[in-house]
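Sample intake sheet
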Amino acid sequence: MAVTFRPLHDRILVERIEAEEKTRGGIIIPDTAKEKPQEGRVISVGTGTVSDKGDVRPLDVKAGDKILFGKWSGTEVKLEGKDLLIMKESDVMGVIEG
């Protein structure tokens, strides 16, 4: 049975985009020396933030967007064997286009 996960409010579900394992010069970087990538692909998004008046403001990011986020952003979770992040939209620094 497949698991479906829908973030609430202004949260988004992100899958990290793995960093290159080699430098431009061809040197292989071991796992212990790699930093966790700060790029990811949005898997799903919540409905948006609710204002004091009860209006819902939709999020600026959407499923499929490639994003850049802070080094310590989000909470790591494991769903269906995949390592994912749940973070607030405010943790996203921007969308990578092109």
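Comment: The radius of gyration is 16 Å. The chain has a mean pLDDT of 83.
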